[in-house]
Amino acid sequence: MKRHALDNASPRVLTRPEHCLSRKRISPNALKVLYRLHRAGYLAYLVGGGVRDLLLGRDPKDFDIGTNARPEEVRRLFKNSRIIGRRFRLVHVFFRGEVVEVSTFRASPEPPEGPDDWKEGELEDREADAPDEPGPKAVREDNTYGTPEEDAWRRDLTINALFYDVSDFSIIDWVNGLEDLERGTIRMVGSPEKRFEEDPVRMMRALEYGVRMGFELEPETNAAIHACHALIAEAVPARLTYELMESLRSGYAAGIWEQWDRYGLLGKAFPELDLDCDRILPLLSCVDARVSGGARVADATTIAVLFLPEFSRLLAEMTSDGQRLANAEFLDRLRAMLEPATAHMMVSNQSFHQMYHGLFALTKMRRPPDRGRQVLKLTRHESFPVAWSLFEIGTEAGLLSGEARDAWSRAVDQVRKGPEGKAPEIVVDPVKRTRRRRRRRPRRREATS
Ligand code: ATP
Ligand code: MG
Which residues lie near ion ligand 2 (Cβ < 5 Å)? Predict the structure, then answer.
């Protein structure tokens, strides 16, 4: 049943027996929020990726909720909540180990200004009432908030615009998302070109979800990305960084980056990064394997991975002809390599610090450790977890020499298994040294008298 909204049509609705989305798969905290909103008389829908993933039988990353309650009303219902965001305000409800995001249905199809319009609090956490826009708040917000139908139509992909209504457990589809979900199709809500002009980051998202879901782009969306790809250069850097980080955490980074590169988005989105895909993609595949295996890979590690090809060139250049590495000069060059791109990407100082020292530690790991003290110093540095992951990823991908890997693994193992708080005795493999012959001092002539 194909319906077009905004022409007084009604949505396609699947009643509980007609779909497979079970409440048991929704987090108890998100359910609590949904029920409390519902009992207070508001509409309470599970929205976005949560519905999409549950219908596909996958585990959602998080659960977002849509409602007709205004942020202040939501705030009043949940003591453990906070209003965030500047232009468009939403509410974070805090539980142990989980944050449930509640947003009021929104009419505005305009592009977000910055990261805090979509994912408030992740890149930047601001209080709600920052005086950034003139005019009374109520007037501004009356134009912003909308009906569920409008809210569905301002979303990016049809498969991301489905609602699950907790009042009767039905699925509500205003944009034909169910059909696309069944067929495995990535389609923009509305006219793709218009939606990309409003917000070019949607091009990256369309390709990203195509890879993550294993879905095909429908021809109009595909053609529009080819036509509009250059617009990505105009997107706000913080939002690009957000999508970049999401891709790196997804377990599908290599596939996503390949697509971004193929459509000409990658170089235009991150011109300050030296992105040679032939060298980056094998590294990203190693990151993906870890993420898919359930390992938590720190953001500082994944961002530093992007610099590994440049780092290895720098290392080769500075040690060519058997030259000894001058630490101070290397650190200067390393900083110069990292600073412009990380500033543009709004990398936090803490992550920068870990990347910088983590990469520098790799220069020490080119050769087997020769002293226990060297191992202890390196492993006790706060950047060591980043350094070690980079070492493993870089050697696995064949970008860094793995010559010393076994020796370092053994040494690091000894530290890990050693007694806590005490300096363990590290036994390092004997390193062949060319023994310098001691020059004998001329014997003092003994006094004879
Ligand atoms: P996941 O969390 O698994 O990455 P998601 O679909 O939940 O997937 P989010 O980035 O969390 O993605 O965004 C939540 C929802 O907000 C999306 O499902 C989509 O409906 C909407 N959305 C996000 N970004 C945009 C955008 N740039 N334009 C329009 N709608 C968007
Ligand atoms: Mg989500």
Answer: 49, 62
